[in-house]
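Structure tokens please, single chain.
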Amino acid sequence: MWSKKLLSHFPLQVAGRFGVWRLVSLLVFGFLAGSFLVSSYFVYNHIFHTLDAATTIVALNASLNDTIDVANFIKAEKMLQQKQSVSLLPPIIRFPFNYGKIISSTIGVSPITTPTLIRRPSPL
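Here you go.
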């Protein structure tokens, strides 16, 4: 009985010339409102998770009792300064492709010579 009264408020046929557009506009508005609500919940939830994580980090940092090894800190600081300083090139730069004489460890091999061209007499 109550279902007939409820269905009487929602006509199944869309009346009028712009009935389809009314239905489409209601659906679009409902979609926009729903997406706004879901986005708001997402932002609200993640902001509070971020704040909670930040307070946890602050609380953990306050309870740490680590001591710093000063000798290793000074050593690391010097290494960092040495790394950042400009290094100068040595005055004599070695030429890596100048091999000089080729020394062979094998016995009885003649030294490397350049081939010579033998000219044949022309047939004329």
